[in-house]
Amino acid sequence: MPESQPPPREEPSRPSTFHELQGRLAELFERIESDRDWEHTAVIVPSLSFHQEELAKIPGVASYEERLLFYLTRLRHPAARVAYVTSQPVHTDIIDYYLHHLVGVHASHARSRLHLLCLYDGSPKPLTQKLLERPRALERLRRWVGPPERAFLTCFYSTPLERRLAESLGVALNGVDPALQPLGTKSGSRRIFREAGVDLPEGFEELRTQRQFVDALIELEERRPGLRRAVLKLNDSFSGSGNAIAVYPERWPRDPGAQRAAARRMIHELEWSVDGENVGDYLRKMEEMGGIVEEWVEAREVRSPSVQMRIHPDGQVLLVSSHDQVLKGATGQSYFGCRFPASTDYRLRIQEEAAKIGRALRDRGVISRFAIDFLATRDAPEEGWRIQAVEINLRMGGTTPPFMALQFLTGGDLDPASGEFLAPRGEPKYYYATDVLASPAYKGLLPEDFLDILVRDGLNFNTASGKGVLFHMIGALSEHGKVGVTCIGDSREEADSLYQRTVEILDHETGAAQASAPAPLDERRIGPVE
Description:
- By secondary structure, the protein is of the alpha+beta class.
- It has three domains: 18-175, 3-Layer(aba) Sandwich (Rossmann fold), CATH 3.40.50; 202-295, no CATH class; 301-523, ATP-grasp fold, B domain (D-amino Acid Aminotransferase, Chain A, domain 1, 2-Layer Sandwich), CATH 3.30.470.20.
- Helix content is 32%, strand content 24%.
- The protein is built from 17 helices and 22 strands.
- The strands form three sheets. Strands 11, 12, 13, 14, 15, 16, 17, 18, 19, 20, 21 and 22 form a twelve-stranded antiparallel β-sheet that branches. A five-stranded parallel β-sheet has the order 3-2-1-4-5, with helices on both faces.
- β13 (317-328) and β14 form a beta hairpin.
- The chain is globular.
- The chain starts with 17 loop residues before the first helix and ends in a 20-residue tail after the last helix.
């Protein structure tokens, strides 16, 4: 990949602490937003710096490093440079696929401002750790970045590893201070909800031992007599993979000793959100990272909307987007996709509640993107929706890449008053997106094979109409038979129809089409492939 020369080096005094580096962010972003000719560098390190045992549950997780390739949209700005680090090589055709979608910029000009750094390390360690362990690669990256005061580091998740990397490069981290990450755990989320005055399910946090979980299950039944289920959540899990369901017996005993025995049985008969989990390992992880128990909220209608926010370095709490999440898995808690925007039934309400939570996080010093998951429930159509907050993710999430794709492809922006995304000509846009459009028949598709299908069958995005599809995680197809897709239309129905057409074309091209009638949209090819 050609490398451009860095801008002329300036020699200010070098900051010595992480907080001094973070102090650059406000001015840095102000310069970038106000002067498109201001030379700067975005360093993208899409490291999944999570609990590695939890990550191992996701087939093809290594390809999730491709999800942030949407950041190549920064190359629209003629003075922007991007360094993108990966564990394994990204196929040249995949890079070309993204650069092709840059409107108004010649691909060769964008390519000259892009530096791909591959570490050739497929081990399960976080990418950031791999980079820190390679001082020569780190020095090459440091030289390419140029003046550190004109650069920032973007990661999927901020941990002490990302802090060390920012300090090593001498650049600001465009993310949450790792010291504040406990605010985004399952336990920390519940504390913030209370501070913000936002409704949340009944429950208990900061639990670690089996005895504490037994006590919590007993107390929860006392507060919610007749409760049928409770949900246990690991503090640092994601996409529902660390959740489990505890089922109360039909007749809850009144004797305290019998209650404790019943609660212990509930723990040893948990229903798992993902395959391969067991009580021994789950309790061990609970002891390591802590967790919560809360009521399983039941109603005739239950939906799972989310709101994405951003706290600007100057303290502004900004709405980014809202979604209705598509949840699946054995217990219906695993994230598989989303629709944008969230339903008009409750969109403005969840945005208002999210703003309260955002202000509480800002007051704690949080900067950068985050997402809040809610429950919307009601028992009858004539009733109003009850809105409860259930989780904060102080990081990018599954709903981040598709919204970035929408901005990337259309050049529009969100209208905060309505929560709709408006294209430059004023028309609203909708999408259906998933990270796991999957089928065993898709295995073996090389990137060039897949791109041939897209060209032949017209599976692309039409910049003139502002409608079509964009794929991501193409590198997961050959081995794991899954790919991510964002289907953009002028209505919710059109976005759903585009997704349906995409599935039908891929099934036909790979021989996966079935003779039986097609399944409903949400059941089609959405799920992990073992």
